[in-house]
Please model this.
Amino acid sequence: MAARSWLFILCLAVADAGVLQTSAQPDLKGFISIDCGLEGKTGYLDDKTNLSYVPDDGFTDAGTNHNISVEFMTPLISRRNYNLRSFPDGERNCYTLRSLTAGLKYLIRAAFVYGNYDGLKKPPVFDLYIGVNFLTMVNITGLDGAALEEAIVVVPDDFVQVCLVNTGTGTPFISGLDLRPLKSTLYPQVTETQGLSLFGRWNFGPTSNTEIIRYPDDPHDREWVPWINPFDWTVISTTTMVQNIENDIFEAPSRVMQTAITPRNASGNIEFAWDAYTQPKDPTPGYIANFYFTEVQLLPSNALRQLYINLNGRLVYNESYTPLYLYADLIYEKKPFLRYPEYNISINATSNSTLPPIINAIEVFSVMPTINVATDSEDGTCTYMYSFSDGSLNFRANLIIIDTR
Ligand SMILES: *[C@@H]1O[C@H](CO)[C@@H](O)[C@H](O)[C@H]1NC(C)=O
Ligand SMILES: *[C@@H]1O[C@H](CO)[C@@H](O)[C@H](O)[C@H]1NC(C)=O
Ligand SMILES: *[C@@H]1O[C@H](CO)[C@@H](O)[C@H](O)[C@H]1NC(C)=O
Ligand SMILES: *[C@@H]1O[C@H](CO)[C@@H](O)[C@H](O)[C@H]1NC(C)=O
Ligand SMILES: *[C@@H]1O[C@H](CO)[C@@H](O)[C@H](O)[C@H]1NC(C)=O
Ligand SMILES: *[C@@H]1O[C@H](CO)[C@@H](O)[C@H](O)[C@H]1NC(C)=O
Ligand SMILES: *[C@@H]1O[C@H](CO)[C@@H](O)[C@H](O)[C@H]1NC(C)=O
Ligand SMILES: *[C@@H]1O[C@H](CO)[C@@H](O)[C@H](O)[C@H]1NC(C)=O
Model:
């Protein structure tokens, strides 16, 4: 039986530096980047991305600021995770992000680093909503645990609320909040009635497992996390720019597509797996995956790399596929896979293929039904009296360490 790759998760990050004036407005790129719980009215320039982070003053009225415990303030976690805002009062507390373009697609990402800020040594479990739509249950395990939750949704109004809901299992808090506009043509699986909740966005083949690729390499500031397994996979790569085809609907960044993996056993397959993240409010999540491919080697004319993808022994795509040389391409699903407790993926070479299979990156999402994503604009105070539970196993941290068994 071939080994399966499993994910083990730690925490990580980036950041630092300059000084900027705060503003509750998107920047010129339409980005909003918030350091929740940052004291004062002055932001700073993040030294890894050159994006300006602002305090959450003006985005929410409620809550109190805290610093994480000093023993968790290591260079491994980013500056914005040194502080957070917690919401001891009220069942539901929201951030309101304004000056958006109604009808546009947005990526909304929230970061949570507990760091024993309250001295209770007990990370809370709470729910995260985009407007009235349940995104996920945030369940941080371990004092140094971290969660990173992301949704891609159509925002029907010129504002959107991100809400933390107390489910009676600890005080909700948040460390950081990002909003990034996406062109309407991107992520065709996202519609007015369906959003995507990120489970994981992995880059195969980087050399360092702390090397997260995001802005400016990815103009949309998606975070591509390394998935490394030197026991089973060999890395192949190119230094040549990988291009996007015209009207590309995913726009994978070149730096992600420049690295790929092939099986160490050249006659074997690429295999990896994930378990469904089942939650009380989403007990049978429906997953969608985008499989990204680029041929990074110039092949002789008599060579052929041709592959297909199996999920739990069923074909994901019914035709043989050959990656394009130095162009980003992908196999993606419009509808969720059949629902399983675990997802075993195998990428096999066809019998005609003279080369082993490759893959460059993968995104896995669970689908998220959406209605009126923004919520009632009169409800600026966010004091709803209901509580819910749950969402999807996200890739709940920034640094992923891979173990093989
Ligand atoms: C950030 O901006 C500085 C000054 O313009 C530049 O030297 C640096 O390369 C930039 N960093 C990134 C990651 O773009
Ligand atoms: C957090 O630490 C910073 C820097 O030491 C300090 O300025 C700020 O007042 C602290 N915040 C809280 C809520 O204690
Ligand atoms: C949170 O995660 C831990 C560890 O995986 C698990 O034991 C616990 O049951 C989870 N909490 C909830 C409310 O699901
Ligand atoms: C390589 O993979 C092939 C096909 O799965 C298998 O028959 C063979 O035993 C593998 N070799 C090693 C060294 O694992
Ligand atoms: C996935 O693979 C594991 C280990 O190879 C196996 O035990 C399990 O039954 C497989 N699951 C499915 C749904 O095929
Ligand atoms: C693959 O499936 C599509 C849609 O069901 C069908 O139109 C196409 O003919 C199939 N291709 C092959 C090679 O079976
Ligand atoms: C693809 O590879 C997997 C894992 O080695 C194997 O179980 C499966 O039978 C292969 N699929 C086909 C159609 O050969
Ligand atoms: C392999 O190549 C032969 C000859 O070109 C072709 O008839 C056959 O359909 C190919 N098989 C696959 C799986 O593509």
Observations:
- The pocket of 2-acetamido-2-deoxy-beta-D-glucopyranose (ligand 2) is lined by residues 39, 65-67, 83 (CB under 6 Å).
- The domain at 32-182 is CATH 2.60.120.260 (Jelly Rolls).
